[in-house]
Structure formats: structure tokens, C-alpha cells
Amino acid sequence: MTSQLAQSLRETLTAAVCVMPAGTMVSFVLRGEGGPATVASSVPGAVVLDALQFAAGAGPCPEALESGQAVSSADLASETRWTGAAAELAAHGARSVHAQPLTLDGQVQGTLNLYAEQAGGFSAETLAVAAVTAGQAAVLYHAVLRAARLDEVIAQLREALNTRAIIDQALGIIMARRQCTAPAAFDLLRRNSQQRNVKLHQVAADLVEAVTGRPPQPSRFGDPPTASRASRTAPG
């Protein structure tokens, strides 16, 4: 998870806590490669309550992650759905709990969890706030994922352009030496790559270094202008 997403989730959680009943403990849980993990919380106690459910593999949070449906318990002291986990949560001071799933593109990515020390701790208004907050968190998560994917595509494009530039340098050397066309030079480079079982761009880099005495310097490709900068430089 990026620091940007973590900070955004903390800010969203802080805003939500302000309109919830006093004493409500709140946390955000997201799926990860190593399983679900708490990524933001209003108090350390919420992290402990999340962890108890992760360890047991049962409770409102795991059930909401699995089902994609909101899961509540008005009184964990008399709860029969997750006997062991419910007793653990109650022993650590939670009587009411609500887990609201964070859904993105039809997939549950995490949960917003509410804990209260008293039974029946969440009104309909509080649960409505939880649903809105979870929706906002899902939008943030989606935006950060899109930005990360865009950065990855840009990095791949830069790499492809740099590789192409090195190959073009090698083709120029071959064309000058052999007095041949670009297609013929490329064929020679490709055959050398196949014979050595080395990637084409590495063969090209080796040739450039052998001729110039230094590794090829990749071309510099700047970031594309932002929309605001583009609008400032647009004619008119």
C-alpha cells in the first residue's frame, strides 16, 4: 500500500469518527498478499480487535471480506455465530461490532470496522455513515490503483524507448561498417542475438560499447505535461 493511500484512509477515518458516537473504535482493513491487515485505525485497541479476528479466521470482519455483505452484531456477549472469536472480542471490551465491506469492481478489497463498548452501540444513522465512508475509501483505493498502473505503463514505455534508442545506435554502426540498409543491419543484429542466445537490446549495447569504449547512454524522455500545464501553454 502506498503512503498516499494510507494517509488518505487516515484522513477519511478521522472525518468519519467525528460524526460517530463517542467512544466508537474504527479501523480500515485491506486485503494483502499475506492476508488482511489493518492499515488505519482511530485507536490502537481497534487494531487488536481486528487481529483477534484474523488469528481466529472468524468474526464480522472475515465474514464481510468473504461475503461482500455488511455484518453486524448488537451484542457479542450473546453472539452464537463466531463463538470463540465473539468471546475474545467481548473479553477485550467490544460488545457491538459492524463490518462494512469496501468493494471495488465487484471485488471486496477490505472492510471498515466499527467497535463499541456497549451493546446496541450503532444506530441506523451511524451505519449509514459507515456505508458512505466505505464507499469513499473504495473510490480512493481505485484512484490510487489507477495512478500506480499509469506509473507502471509510463515506466514500461520509457524502457521500451530507451531500448529502441540503443538498438538504433547499433544499427547505425552496422550500416556504416557494412554499407548496408537498415533492414539488413537489423537482420545481422537479430542473427547475432539468436546465435549468442542474448537479448537483442543487449547485443546492441555490447556493440555500441565495443565501438565507443563506454556503455550506451539511454535517451532522456521527460514526463508528459500535466493537463494544467498544457492548458497554460496552449495557443489562444
Structure description:
With 236 residues, this protein is α+β, with helices and mostly antiparallel strands. It folds into two domains: 3-147, Beta-Lactamase (2-Layer Sandwich), CATH 3.30.450; 157-220, Winged helix-like DNA-binding domain superfamily/Winged helix DNA-binding domain (Arc Repressor Mutant, subunit A, Orthogonal Bundle), CATH 1.10.10.10. Helices cover 57% and strands 14% of the residues. The chain contains eight helices and five strands, in the order H-E-E-H-H-E-H-E-E-H-H-H-H. It has a five-stranded antiparallel β-sheet, with helices on both faces. A hairpin with a 6-residue loop joins strand 1 and strand 2 (37-41). Helix 5 (124-178) packs across helix 6 (182-196). The two termini are 42 Å apart.
| CATH C-level of the largest domain | Alpha Beta
Q: Decide which structural class fits the backbone.
A: alpha+beta
Structural domain count: 2
Poorly predicted ranges: 221-236
Number of helices: 8
Q: Measured on Cα atoms, how large is the radius of gyration?
A: 28 Å
N-to-C CA distance? 42 Å
Instruction: State mean pLDDT (0 to 100 scale).
Output: 83
Estimate the strand proportion.
5-15%
Q: Based on the structure given, which CATH architecture of the largest domain is correct?
A: 2-Layer Sandwich
Shape: rod-shaped
The quaternary state of the protein chains shown equals: single chain
